[in-house]
Amino acid sequence: xxxxxxxxxxxxxxxxxxxxxxxxxxxxxxxxxxxxxxxxxxxxxxxxxxxxxxxxxxxxxxxxxxxxxxxxxxxxxxxxxxxxxxxxxxxxxxxxxxxxxxxxxxxxxxxxxxxxxxxxxxxxxxxxxxxxxxxxxxxxxxxxxxxxxxxxxxxxxxxxxxxxxxxxxxxxxxxxxxxxxxxxxxxxxxxxxxxxxxxxxxxxxxxxxxxxxxxxxxxxxxxxxxxxxxxxxxxxxxxxxxxxxxxxxxxxxxxxxxxxxxxx
Length: 264
What we know:
The chain is mostly helical. Helices cover 81% and strands 2% of the residues. Helix 3 (60-79) runs antiparallel to helix 6 (151-176). The chain starts with a helix and ends with a helix. Mean pLDDT is 84; it is low at 260-264.
C-alpha cells in the first residue's frame, strides 16, 4: 500500500508499476481474508459451547475457490482485446487457470475413491474426464495463440475454450459440494464462538474495505484529480484497520485463556 501511495506522488509513475502494486495488494487482501477467517474459526471453536467441523473427503472451500479462480482467469481474458494484453499476461493468466483446474481434477480423484455409492463415484470419474478434456482443449488454444497470434485464436482461447473450461469447473464444484456425506459436518458455534468470529472478521473488513477502495481509486487517478488524496486516506485507514485486527486477535486469545482458567 505504501508503494502505491509513493507511486501516486511521482509525476513519472509507470502504468506497469502501478498495475503490479494493485495486483500485489489484491493478492495480499485475499490472503489476509483467508488467514483471518481461519484464525477466527480456530478461536471460535475453542470457545465454550462450540465444536469443530468434521471434514469429509471433499474440501468445500478448496473446490469452490479453485472454480472461482478459473472463472476469474477466463473473465480476465475476456476483459482484454488482443492489442491490450501482453504475452506474459496471457501466460500468467493461463497458468493460473490450468493450475486451479488441476486442483479440481485432484478433488475428483479423491472423491471418486471415497464417495458413498457407485453412482456418485462414476459421476466423479466422468467429471474428471470432463475437466481434463476441457483443460487440455484450453491449453491447446493457448499454444495456438502463442504460435499464431491473432484475433481468431485469441477469441478461441477467450470465448470458446476458456468459457467451456469455466463452465465445466463450476459444474464440478456444485456437484462436489452438494452432498454432506462428502463435505463433512460443519462446525457448531455457541454465542461466545460467534462473538469471537464476528470480532475477527469485522476487524479484517476494516483492512479489506479501504484496500479495495484504494485499488478502485488507482484506476481513476488519470481522470479524477481528487482520487490521489482519497487514496492516501485509504492507506491511513488500512494502517488503522491492521492495528484493530491485531488487537481483535489478541482480545479473542485472551478471552479464550480467561475461559480456560475459569473452567479449571
